Amino acid sequence: MAAFTYYAGDDGVRAGIALDHAIAAARGDDAPVPRLAQYLTAALESGMPPHKIREIIPTREAAPIPGTDL
Known about the structure:
Layout: H1 2-8, H2 12-28, H3 35-46, H4 50-56
């Protein structure tokens, strides 16, 4: 989640660092690398601009959480 937040906030350097840590932690636990980490790695490596990611994130106005005021 940290990597995603950094990436969406136009901070590719910190996103990359957070991804490195997430991937290392998964591998250290013999767990699969989370898909979000895989997608973000691909986005960073391909040079995908963060505004593309922000376009697909639903806002509270567009997709409120059911049963809440959020």
